[in-house]
């Protein structure tokens, strides 16, 4: 295991994970924090989540990026360079504007960034699979290192950005994040080519063939799977959508407090929960993991309800953030294992893009709804809603277990 840590591909996986996580983190947390401190309305901040729609629809152009080769650099590296450079330019462009006077210019640039970032995710995930499958011993460690790089980017664009912005201002901070995207470009240039780049694809796989594994459960089973994918993480998605406005504007915590709690301690708790969840899954069936971890992550949303009732209390805030993020990490570990178990090797790229896109719907469209809900009913009732909305997805699990969804073995994860 120690020898594998020094494998040349491991460092590449980390850099590619970092480059994938940075734009998403900027759209998820940096922009809302920037707009919050600029005094932009809650409705406008909530609508930022709509900019992440390309993550839900990336399966539409995934087959093109999977089969069209870029001259000189090939399929994977060519598309990676194009998408990473595009992300860097979009972020740098945003740094020239102030949301108080040019919010729409930032919205437009962020929309293009979301498309480029979602496209980058398609290719970086595909490269991870190609490079790992050439050396099967790297599969588990490679995915872990890639995810670690992704999380480090979340901390960079979250906690670090909040702290740095207090000294150099938001526009310089955004410029700094744009320059950080060149880390991914360097990783791509250093990345070795894969055998896949040498294979000439005769045709693009039809969409109906890509989703065949989940169509086999019939229409009722297919609908149950899709609703479970949407709803399983819905409570968590709603909870974190307005995290920064709640802590900063409603409760009056400083950006430094939020940077430490929600952006640093919270992400560490998420990583810890994810690692523990991955280890526990080896001792539980996938059905048990989804059910147990799902209940825990849903109940943990009540800690934010507690915080909303208590108000400005630093200790309660730390408990709420750490608890919610930790159990969210547990649930995410089981949820990702579930998505992977639904995919086949032949068409896993497009099918995974479909499933991950469907899973993103709650977080994408939850922002405007969450903003309206808070404006109408207040923060305590909103977090009670986040608690309740987590249960419909759990209630579908016994039915999926009955029709055999969780009995399929996936060779990459060995989950059942």
> What does the radius of gyration come to?
21 Å
Uncertain spans: 409-416
Number of domains: 2
What is the averaged pLDDT score?
Answer: 81
CATH top-level class of the largest domain? Mainly Alpha
Count of separate DSSP helical elements: 24
Description of the molecule:
This protein has helices at residues 2-5, 8-37, 42-46, 54-57, 62-67, 75-94, 99-134, 139-168, 170-180, 182-190, 207-210, 212-215, 218-231, 234-241, 243-250, 255-281, 286-300, 302-310, 314-342, 348-359, 361-377, 379-388, 391-395, 397-402. With 416 residues, the chain is mainly alpha-helical. The chain folds into two domains: 9-202, Growth Hormone, Chain: A; 205-416, Growth Hormone, Chain: A. Helix 13 crosses helix 20 (348-359). The longest helix is centred in the first third of the chain and has 36 residues, at 99-134.
Helices and strands, with pairings:
Layout: H1 2-5, H2 8-37, H3 42-46, H4 54-57, H5 62-67, H6 75-94, H7 99-134, H8 139-168, H9 170-180, H10 182-190, H11 207-210, H12 212-215, H13 218-231, H14 234-241, H15 243-250, H16 255-281, H17 286-300, H18 302-310, H19 314-342, H20 348-359, H21 361-377, H22 379-388, H23 391-395, H24 397-402
Helix pairs in contact: 2-7, 2-8, 2-10, 2-15, 6-7, 6-9, 6-10, 7-8, 8-9, 8-16, 13-20, 14-21, 14-22, 16-19, 17-19, 18-19, 18-22, 21-22
Give a quick set of tags describing it.
416 residues, mainly alpha, Growth Hormone, Chain: A, 2 domains, 24 helices, 0% strand, globular, disordered C terminus
């Amino acid at each position: 295991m120690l020898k594998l840590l020094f494998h040349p591909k491991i460092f590449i996986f980390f850099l590619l994970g970092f480059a994938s996580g940075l734009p998403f983190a900027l759209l998820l947390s940096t922009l809302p924090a920037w707009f919050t401190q600029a005094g932009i309305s809650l409705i406008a901040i909530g609508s930022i989540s709509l900019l992440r729609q390309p993550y839900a629809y990336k399966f539409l152009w995934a087959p093109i990026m999977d089969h069209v080769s870029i001259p000189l650099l090939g399929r994977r590296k060519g598309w990676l360079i194009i998408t990473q450079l595009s992300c860097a330019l979009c972020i740098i462009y945003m740094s020239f504007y102030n949301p108080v006077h040019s919010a729409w210019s930032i919205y437009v640039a962020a929309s293009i960034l979301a498309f480029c970032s979602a496209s980058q995710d398609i290719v970086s995930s595909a490269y991870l699979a190609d490079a790992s499958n050439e050396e099967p011993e790297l599969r588990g460690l490679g995915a872990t290192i890639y995810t670690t790089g992704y999380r480090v980017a979340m901390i960079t664009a979250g906690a670090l950005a909040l702290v740095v912005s207090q000294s150099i201002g938001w526009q310089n901070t955004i410029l700094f994040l744009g320059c950080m995207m060149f880390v991914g470009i360097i990783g791509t240039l250093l990345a070795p080519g894969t055998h896949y780049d040498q294979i000439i694809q005769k045709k693009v796989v039809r969409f109906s063939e890509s989703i065949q594994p989940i169509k086999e459960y019939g229409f009722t089973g297919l609908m149950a799977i899709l609703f479970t994918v949407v709803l399983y993480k819905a409570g968590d998605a709603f909870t974190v959508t307005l995290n920064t406005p709640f802590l900063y504007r409603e409760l009056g915590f400083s950006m430094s407090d939020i940077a430490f709690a929600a952006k640093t301690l919270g992400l560490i708790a998420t990583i810890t929960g994810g690692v523990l969840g991955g280890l526990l899954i080896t001792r539980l069936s996938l059905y048990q993991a989804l059910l147990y971890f799902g209940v825990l992550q849903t109940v943990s949303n009540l800690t934010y309800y507690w915080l909303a009732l208590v108000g400005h209390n630093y200790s309660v805030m730390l408990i709420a953030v750490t608890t919610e993020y930790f159990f969210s990490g547990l649930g995410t570990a089981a949820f990702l294992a579930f998505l992977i178990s639904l995919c086949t090797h032949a068409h896993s790229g497009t099918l995974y893009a479909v499933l991950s896109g469907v899973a993103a719907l709650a977080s994408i469209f939850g922002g405007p709804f969450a903003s309206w809900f808070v404006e109408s009913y207040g923060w305590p009732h909103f977090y009670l809603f986040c608690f309740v909305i987590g249960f419909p997805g759990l209630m579908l699990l016994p039915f999926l277990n009955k029709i055999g969804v969780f009995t399929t073995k996936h060779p990459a994860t060995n989950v059942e």
